[in-house]
Specification:
Blueprint (H helix, E strand, L loop, with lengths): L1 E8 L4 H17 L4 E8 L6 E9 L3 H10 L1 H4 L3 E9 L7
Antiparallel strand pairs: 1-3, 1-4, 2-3
Amino acid sequence: MLFALTCRDKPGFLEVRKANRTAHLDYLAQQGPMIRLAGPLLDDAGAAPAGSLIILDVPDRAAAEAFAAGDPYARAGLFASVAIDPFRQVLPSE
């Protein structure tokens, strides 16, 4: 099942993001095919990261929650909020 994780950074936490970026990317790489899409959300100017968007393919919500809790960004306290929503891919068709 697909889940969309929408994570919003706490204001003023860019240094926390930078300090944990390598660990975050390593964590994503270790997840293999469960990651369908991942990347930063940007500020209104499109210049600085303001959060993360990750589409996961996991068995259930519990697996999505476990993934989100294990993310080094989350463990470092970067996120002000994390939303986990079931997602249906329409385009591009699989």
